[in-house]
Amino acid sequence: SIDLVFKSGQNAEAMRIDSSQRVLMGAGTNATSTITNGWWNNATYSGILNIQNVNDGTAQKYVSLAVSRHSNDAEAGQLGFAKSRGATANSKTTVGNGDTLGLITFQGADGSNFVEAARILAATDNTASADDMPGRLVFFTTADGASSSTERMRVESSGDVGIGEG
């Protein structure tokens, strides 16, 4: 198999589409290093799009992903997550009660692995139906000395907020 590699003006690798159909982007290094294997809770998952920002001494490159919108209206840049129970592209099979709709995880290296410090999760909060998608947001943190995160706060579809009940 052959990877498609894009190089910058200085002949440094800037982006790669590999044989697994992943898009790997990196600043100042071959983006296929370290982030593509084993970073998610010590498993062997890897993302379809990997963005790696390596310290190349340029202060302007602190942001690894920027989403912006430039328009003469009240709208802003958006990051969207979507979930379907269907197993084919563009399927719209109804999600189930409790299904995760999106998740953001915050992880740090412990010297050997990336370990989760916190996460924000969005899930269905009841049965979904036509134009009705009850949802909840759940916030997790990892306590000092713990190896996994614990639910700390939940905002339910009813508007009820629970803190420290998880």
The radius of gyration over CA amounts to: 19 Å
Mind summarizing the main beta sheet? 5 strands, antiparallel
Derived from helix and strand composition plus strand pairing, the structural class reads mainly beta
- Cross-sheet strand order for the largest sheet: 5-6-7-8-9
Mean pLDDT: 80
Number of strands: 9
**What are the secondary-structure elements, in order, as H or E?**
EEEEEEEEE
Please indicate the percent range of residues in DSSP E strands (runs of 2 or more): 25-35%
Low-confidence parts? 28-44
Spatial gap, N to C terminus: 47 Å
Estimate percent helicity.
under 10%
Write the layout of secondary structure elements.
Blueprint: E1 4-7, E2 13-17, E3 23-27, E4 49-53, E5 100-109, E6 114-124, E7 135-141, E8 150-155, E9 161-163
Parallel strand pairs: 3-4
Antiparallel strand pairs: 1-2, 2-3, 5-6, 6-7, 7-8, 8-9
